[in-house]
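Inputs:
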Amino acid sequence: MSTLALLDAVDLPEAGGRPHDGLARLAERAGGGDRSALGELFERLADELYGFALWSCGSPDLAGEALAALFARLVATPDLLTRMRAPRPYLFRAVARDARRLRARRDRELPPEHAQFLLAEGSEPRDASIALEQALSRLPRVQREALYLRYFAGLDLAAIGRTTGVPKFTAASRCRLGLRRLRRLLGARP
Amino acid sequence: MNPRDPLFDGHAVPPAPAELRRRIRAVIASAPTKDESDRASLWRLLWAAAVLLSIAAHLALDLGNRVGSPAAEELPSSFSSGGRE
């Protein structure tokens, strides 16, 4: 059995922090010009990437624009996908970078809008969501991003570190400090 | 999956809007396949080669006309000095 086949067989965790779910192979096929593979990659990651872009820039419009720009780039130059070893962290970084750039450009032109990071589930009163969103918008961006990756994208600390380009301990302290600050801003008990 | 912090209970991150999904799906669907892309590259290459050949042919003809032209050989020496002699 070849090394690659062995790696697939033991179902190693991907660098994105999730069990190997075939994303790397999907990206490789998409990089070879397989449209259906690119489509599947999009369907599987769209919500996560959109969410991360949203938490990065605080604007649904810009998060959408960043996601569209990322996939337009992948359509134009699919080779990018064959060069990446771990597609998930790469795509997270790319979409957040685009979202921040768009946000910076818009902030030069327009006053900042109300950030919308969350959606209330079920019968949750809207006020609580607004309070939480306002508290989230007052967090440093890197802490907010770390909280998203940990509590909504489900990445472990090592994967958060790889995605955001910092050591695992820095990722851990961003999560810890972010939560602590969030609780303080909301007047919640630590 | 990591345990959710109670702070986030009852909240979710909005999913990518349906309209955005449709737009991106359309972009992906319009992407050229590998074969189409290779064919397009080949055509571009052939087109560029044809343009270069055409330019080279024009230059060669032009040069041939200048070198072989009796008029060029019979020009008076004063022609090169702007006719001031």
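The two ends of chain B are 95 Å apart (CA to CA). Flag for discussion at group meeting.
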